[in-house]
UniProtKB/TrEMBL annotation:
<keyword id="KW-0658">Purine biosynthesis</keyword>
<comment type="similarity">
    <text>Belongs to the GHMP kinase family. Homoserine kinase subfamily.</text>
</comment>
<dbReference type="InterPro" id="IPR036921">
    <property type="entry name" value="PurM-like_N_sf"/>
</dbReference>
<comment type="pathway">
    <text>Amino-acid biosynthesis; L-threonine biosynthesis; L-threonine from L-aspartate: step 4/5.</text>
</comment>
<dbReference type="InterPro" id="IPR000870">
    <property type="entry name" value="Homoserine_kinase"/>
</dbReference>
<dbReference type="InterPro" id="IPR006204">
    <property type="entry name" value="GHMP_kinase_N_dom"/>
</dbReference>
<dbReference type="Pfam" id="PF00586">
    <property type="entry name" value="AIRS"/>
</dbReference>
<keyword id="KW-0443">Lipid metabolism</keyword>
<feature type="domain" description="GHMP kinase N-terminal">
    <location>
        <begin position="90"/>
        <end position="174"/>
    </location>
</feature>
<feature type="domain" description="PurM-like N-terminal">
    <location>
        <begin position="436"/>
        <end position="539"/>
    </location>
</feature>
<keyword id="KW-0547">Nucleotide-binding</keyword>
<keyword id="KW-0028">Amino-acid biosynthesis</keyword>
<dbReference type="InterPro" id="IPR006203">
    <property type="entry name" value="GHMP_knse_ATP-bd_CS"/>
</dbReference>
<dbReference type="GO" id="GO:0006189">
    <property type="term" value="P:'de novo' IMP biosynthetic process"/>
</dbReference>
<comment type="pathway">
    <text>Purine metabolism; IMP biosynthesis via de novo pathway; 5-amino-1-(5-phospho-D-ribosyl)imidazole from N(2)-formyl-N(1)-(5-phospho-D-ribosyl)glycinamide: step 2/2.</text>
</comment>
<keyword id="KW-0756">Sterol biosynthesis</keyword>
<keyword id="KW-0444">Lipid biosynthesis</keyword>
Amino acid sequence: MAALGNDFRPRDNSSALADTTIILKEDQETEYMVAKMFTIRPGFDVIGLALSIWLELRVTTGEKTSEAVRYNCRITYEGKGDVDKDADKNLITQTALYVLRCHGKKTFPEGTHVHIVNPIPLGRGLGSSGAAVVAGVSLANEVAQLGLSKDRILDYCLMIERHPDNVAAALFGGFVGSYLKELNPEDMKRREIPLAEVLPAPQGGEDTGLTPPIPPQDIGKHIRFPWAKEIKCIAIIPDFEVSTAEARRVLPTSYEKADVIYNLQRVALLTTALGQSPPNPVLIYDGMQDKVHQPYRKGLIPGLTEILQSVGPDRNPGLLGICLSGAGPTILALATENFSDIAEHLLGEFKKEGITCDWKLLEPAYDGLTVSHGSQESGRMTYADAGVSIEAGNELVQSIKSAVASTRRPGADAEIGGFGGAMDLAAAGYTEPPLIVQAIDGVGTKLKIAFAMDDFSTVGIDLVAMNVNDLLVQGAEPLTFMDYYGCSKLDVADASRFVKGVAEGCREAGCALVGGETAEMPGMYQGKEFDAAGAATGAIKEGRKILPDKEAMQEGDVLLGLKSNGAHSNGFSLIRKVIERHGLSWNDQAPWDSSTTVGASLLTPTRIYVKALMPAIEQDLILGMSHITGGGLDENIPRMLPKHLAAEVNVASWPVPGVLKWLKQAGNVSNKEFARTWNTGLGMVLVVKEEKVQSAVDALRSAGEEAVRVGKLVAKNDEGVILLGLEHWD
Ligand SMILES: Nc1ncnc2c1ncn2[C@@H]1O[C@H](COP(=O)(O)OP(=O)(O)O)[C@@H](O)[C@H]1O
Ligand SMILES: N[C@@H](CCOP(=O)(O)O)C(=O)O
């Protein structure tokens, strides 16, 4: 991935489409298509919600094969479950064949290869068949260039899946209401038009020339409702299938008037309630009650009634409502927070029935069906087709411009838009050739907490901290910084909050943000997730030594510690496990600090020690420094020591921050593990000659930092770090 340059814009055309181009080359292809789909609906046969799971087809034509392939269509599949690979049996290609036959074509174009990538679990009520039907109609539309509009595609879909909720949401995206128009008298007479989900089979095989029923115009109508941004969907997906056909067979053919009115009243309110911000849990919970399908389907899903009734907004903070997804067995809970709590509870309820489940946190997806073409001959590929928005990139540049400019410093103007970031060393005070030091790092899985909290304002500070603290321990002054932000779909607000955090970190470290890269790469990451990395460049003045000065270190040299303010940016994989095991959710009150939540406390940004340490470094008061990151005291302190010396550290000499104390105890983490996973309360450990300790402490104090004496250097036997006073941690 090219990440150089200082244009805060999406990657250049050729690299953004690199994945696609590779596919085309390998298969000698002419077409490329992606169909993105969704799932669910809480109003029986009426409303559907497209969710963030995409069914994707990669389609190529002109493939050379040694043997004849039926209907000219070779199918390959990756994803959930397994599907038929025969073109006339696979739901996607079967649907496409029906549409092709409606247009007088009996086969796919020669050498068609359809590669299906399907993450939607089959037969779980998450609309895999609706997605497949939309993809199938679109497939025919593309390979035969039929020019069908989305509205006309819906007509074809409705000939196959006669309930419009799933196909309409899959096709148009978002939270969608739909109805089927009554057929006009002429079409009513056309007995071949299926009234239920019956796929018109190619009677007598591919060569009969029979024309299947062409859909009447405008069979279905739809409208998109608003959806409040904070509402997310927890899908609890049991490990067994319920076929939609079976789940429809158990429904009655007629209903009591009272039950019909009950549902109508709720659906009418629900469509508005789900668009209101903040959402009203009472209206949504009541609005999601149902009397026309859930009660009849309980025989197919053990414990359904009890499971649905086991949660409510009064008992489960954050929960808004719950229903069967599609025809089941998946259960869909809508919530604004405490997602893992709610999910764990429902998993527990299913477990009582002996059923294991998977769960996913999903969000509405607004694109619906998208198609992108890539023709080698015409070179008609576009960013937009591939899911990359230049407009969003430009918007981001505008929104971060002033934050980036605020990091300017002597030697770097921090203006964005050029091809590279420049630094005038002389203007920065380095008149003789300095030693240049560089560092590169990421934020790690602390990002996961930011995703869960939907708060990206501080992880940029962590990114800068991880880099500049690494430069600092080598005695270098950080001068410039560059960041990399990779996502699947650029959310300008999120990316901007992130870059503003990076700028804040840079200001704190005194370095200029001279460039960055925002890479929008469809399909690389899940939903709104992103990855971030950064690199810092610093300098050491001519004539001064790069640290650590191992040769100058001796037994008896003093170890000073600078406090951390929590976990900083390391050990988050274990942190997440401990939090999960304790059934805490990110929005719960932090057990170690009643004034904040678990997530907010853990997002406390990593301390940046530049301003505190630079004066002492410049006065040559320090022989070596260790930035306590992944690997903790155990792994990081020996990195600054000569082979013959070890660090003897008295762990009682500094306070362990409340959060780390709690995590250690809650995770039953041994002292050894504690010292090699987390920083234990020290963000930096310094080696200082005894005679310079007072000056070093004074220099640090003048810069606002209190150093504590934590130990000394001793002759090394086995261990690089000897921890004394461990009982203090028990
Ligand atoms: N991507 C796909 N490719 C081919 N067939 C599919 C695909 N997705 C779903 N199907 C077909 O649809 C069936 C599931 O449909 P259905 O019972 O309606 O459940 P769901 O709730 O998942 O829509 C699968 O067993 C399979 O035959
Ligand atoms: N309204 C339909 C929806 C079926 O959805 P699926 O995902 O189970 O195919 C119904 O409830 O039957």
